[in-house]
Write a structure and sequence with these properties.
The protein is built from eleven helices and 21 strands. It has 469 residues and is of the alpha+beta class. The longest helix is centred in the middle third of the chain and has 19 residues. Pfam families: PK_Tyr_Ser-Thr. Belongs to the protein kinase superfamily. Ser/Thr protein kinase family.
Length: 469
């Protein structure tokens, strides 16, 4: 899916590690378009020792070290109804993800469980290396804000991963695809839910950074943050995860891989990876939740294509800040709260890695905001499971949501309030449709674009190579 670019001679030079390639003319960079948390998020509650695996054969010999189920390919076929097209949840660089059910009919004694089965596409841009990384990390780590790996299949050339099913999909879906109900209203994620997700995702990253051997996630973005039925955030897709520096090391040197728009600038320029690289990616996601725009959006005026470059300077100017905050959340927060969140995003996006907070500090900051009234979930606005959604009336004379024409109508059980939206922070004029909760499955979907991936070896779809010297 999407468009792939490759950039040659980007001036990236580093020593190789774990088989990472080094070239004399620089790094080859490929860009592809495309629960309740623990009280101490920075200290793992397990003493996991992640074993380095060189290849699949090495993995098969060490397979007993992972506390996950090993499934046969025939069991995977049965769980997904022979990989029926109507069971597809999504597709990406790894391959196709199917919804499935594993019960005692498939494996005797197995409690009936809804699962998501991810099948590696041999022609895709991820391969055994990324598949092994997922099993290696998720097979040893356990945390409320990491998606649970139930099992895997490694039979002949087949590579599949079996995860817990995340009923509400990705954060990306809820932020950037608007579902218009037959009742004439649009649903969007309210401020309190955004802050709940921001805190949960931060705890997931803080857990990884605080492990005995720190783990750098390396691909933090909205599409990798999955939501369960109660909108608890869980990190998924550990294919690019990397062990962090230890002892006197200040960084690890590696190939530049990640997603364009989310990767830290110093990492892209030097290949030096630290936990603060993840903090930058977190800042980008926090900015997306704050403003309601994608990290990269070529449909905007040229100066607004890159969200960080355009918005970060405005975050510390109160008047300008209030003009760029997502208008769909108007009236759901206080100015003081929005300023604190904006300041946190500003710090996370510092060009100087040492100027960024640690993820444990981010968690502390967000936890201090959870007690504020505007960040508490309102049961009157529940969507059936205690999670709020904000409803906007769709204008009868014009298509799309009211934010397109400069006004929005916030509807709740306590009355109706009309507020003016600001043109500079309006959502895109073309909306993508999505199903915001399990109760709304079957809604039409239109996927306009996908993220841009850096450092992949192959692309999963149409490619255009652009060389820069």
């Amino acid at each position: 899916m999407g468009i792939c670019f490759s950039v040659e001679g980007a001036g990236v030079r580093q020593k190789g590690g774990d088989g990472d390639g080094v070239t004399n003319n620089g790094e080859r960079i490929r860009i592809v378009s495309n629960n309740k948390s623990a009280s101490s998020p920075t200290k793992p509650d397990i003493n996991a020792v992640v074993i380095k695996l060189k290849d699949v054969e090495d993995f098969r010999q060490e397979a007993g070290n992972c506390d996950v189920n090993i499934f046969s390919y025939s069991e995977m076929r049965a769980a997904t109804r022979n990989f029926r097209p109507d069971q597809i949840l999504g597709e990406g660089g790894f391959g196709t993800v199917y919804k499935g059910v594993i019960d005692e009919n498939i494996r005797p004694g197995f409690k009936s469980t809804q699962v998501a089965v991810k099948e590696l596409n041999p022609e895709g841009f991820q391969g055994d290396r990324e598949w092994l990384a997922e099993v290696n990390y998720l097979g040893h780590f356990s945390h409320p804000n990491l998606v649970k790996l139930i099992g895997y299949c490694c039979e002949d050339h087949h590579r599949l991963l079996v995860y817990e099913y995340m009923a509400c999909g990705s954060l990306e879906k809820h932020l950037f695809r608007i579902h218009i109900l037959a009742l004439g209203v649009c649903l969007t994620m309210p401020w309190s839910t955004r802050m709940k997700i921001a805190l949960g995702a931060a705890k997931g990253l803080a857990f990884l950074h605080g492990a005995e051997r720190p783990v750098i996630y390396r691909d933090f973005k909205t599409s990798n943050i999955l939501l369960d039925v109660d909108y608890n955030a869980k990190l998924s897709d550990f294919g690019l995860a990397k062990e962090g520096p230890m002892g006197d090391q200040t960084h690890v040197s590696t190939r530049v891989m990640g997603t364009y728009g989310y990767a830290a600038p110093e990492y892209v320029m030097t290949g030096h990876l630290t936990a603060r690289s993840d903090v930058y990616g977190y800042g980008v996601v926090l900015l997306e939740m704050l403003i309601g725009r994608r990290a990269m959006d070529k449909s905007r005026p040229s100066r607004e294509h890159n969200l960080v470059e355009w918005a970060r300077p405005l975050l510390i100017h109160n008047r300008k800040l209030l003009k760029i905050v997502d208008p769909r959340t108007e009236g759901q927060y206080t100015v003081k709260t929005i300023q604190k969140v904006a300041n946190l995003a500003y710090q996370c996006l510092s060009q100087n890695p040492k100027g960024r907070p640690t993820m444990s500090q981010v968690v502390e900051m967000l936890e201090s905001l959870q007690d504020l009234p505007e960040n508490r979930e309102d049961p009157l606005l529940g969507s059936g499971n205690g999670i709020a959604v904000t409803l906007y009336e769709v204008p009868k004379a014009a298509g799309g949501c009211p934010a397109e024409r400069g006004e929005q109508r916030q509807v709740d059980n306590r009355g109706t309030k009309i507020v003016k939206a600001r043109s500079r922070s309006e959502p895109p004029s073309v909306y993508e449709h999505y199903s915001p909760s399990p109760d709304l499955d079957g809604a039409p979907m239109l996927v306009m674009s996908s993220s841009t991936r850096i450092g992949s070896e192959k692309s999963a779809a149409d490619e255009v190579d652009v060389h820069s010297h």
